[in-house]
C-alpha cells in the first residue's frame, strides 16, 4: 500500500475512533442522568419491594441490539401501552411521545436506559412536581411495563432505519419529468429509455431508483448488510504534462496538488498538478452537478418519468 493510501486509511480510522469516543462520552453522560434519577427515587419504596419489582438488566449484546434498532418489541404490549399513554400522558408529551408542553420522550435518556419500568416506574408513581408532572400512584407494574414498551417502540421507529417506512414518492408529473430528462437536465446525453434505462423501473423499487438517479454509487447500507453490489464505474483521466506527454488511465486520487492514476499498463503513477492539465471523465459528475440545482418538483417529476420505464 502506498504511503498516501496508508495516510488516507489512518485518517478514516482516526475519524471512526473519534466518533466512537464521542458516542461513549454521550452515553456516559446519559448514564449519569439515569443514575441521578434512580438515586432521587431510591427511597420512594421499600428496599425489598424495589428488588422484587426491578427486572434484571440487559446484557451488553442486548443493549447494542437496542441501539441498532434490533430490540424485540412486543406489539401487544406496545398497543396496551399506547392506550394508557394517549389519555394519561399525551396531553403533555403528545400522542406520539415527541413532546408538546412536556419534553420529547422518544429521545429521552431515561427512556433509553429504562428496562420494563425500572427507571420510569418510580418517576411515574412519584411524579416530578418541580417540573409540573403529577404523580400516577395507581399505575400497576404491568401498566408501567406496557408504557415502557410503547416508548421503546417509538424510539425504535425513529432510530432503526432498516424498519423505516418510506412514504409515497411517486407524486410527480411524468410528462414534465420526460421534458426535463430530454431538456434542461441533459440526461439524454448519457442515458436512453430504450438503452441503459430500458425496464429500469422493473429492476428497482422507487426509493432505490431515486437514490440511483441522484447519486449512482453502491448503496452503503447494502454493502454493510453484505449484499452483492456492483462497483461504481471508475473515473477516467488524462494528464497532459508540460513536456507534451499525455498519460491516460483510471483515477485513483485527485486534490489541489497531485493527481494519481493507474495507467493503461496497470502502473500506479502520481503527478504534480503545478505544470500539468488534468481532464477527468467521471460518469457521476453530471449527477453531482445536478444535485444543488434540482428543485423538489423536478426531482419527483423525473422519478415519475423513470417509473414509466417498465
Write out the strand line-up for the largest beta sheet, numbering strands in chain order. 4-3-2-1-5
What share of the residues lie within helices? Answer: 40-55%
Uncertain segments are: 1-10, 44-70
Which series of helices and strands comes N to C? HHHHHHHHHHHEEEEEHH
How would you describe what is shown here?
It is a single chain. Helices cover 47% and strands 10% of the residues. It has 310 residues and is α+β, with helices and mostly antiparallel strands. The protein has 3 domains: 28-37 and 71-165, Orthogonal Bundle (Cytochrome Bc1 Complex, Chain D, domain 2); 174-231 and 287-306, no CATH class; 236-282, SH3 type barrels. Strands 4-3-2-1-5 form a 5-stranded antiparallel β-sheet, with no helix packed on it. It is elongated and about 85 Å long. The protein starts with a helix and ends with a helix. Residues 1-10 and 44-70 have low confidence and may be disordered.
Question: What are the SSEs and their pairings?
Answer:
Blueprint: H1 3-40, H2 47-53, H3 60-67, H4 75-93, H5 109-113, H6 120-126, H7 141-159, H8 174-182, H9 200-203, H10 206-214, H11 220-224, E1 236-240, E2 246-254, E3 258-263, E4 268-272, E5 277-281, H12 285-290, H13 296-306
Antiparallel strand pairs: 1-2, 1-5, 2-3, 3-4
Key traits:
310 residues; alpha+beta; Cytochrome Bc1 Complex, Chain D, domain 2; SH3 type barrels; 3 domains; 5-stranded antiparallel beta sheet; 13 helices; 5 strands; 10% strand; disordered N terminus
Can you give me a brief rundown of this structure?
With 310 residues, the chain is α+β, with helices and mostly antiparallel strands. The protein has helices spanning 3-40, 47-53, 60-67, 75-93, 109-113, 120-126, 141-159, 174-182, 200-203, 206-214, 220-224, 285-290, 296-306, and strands at 236-240, 246-254, 258-263, 268-272, 277-281.
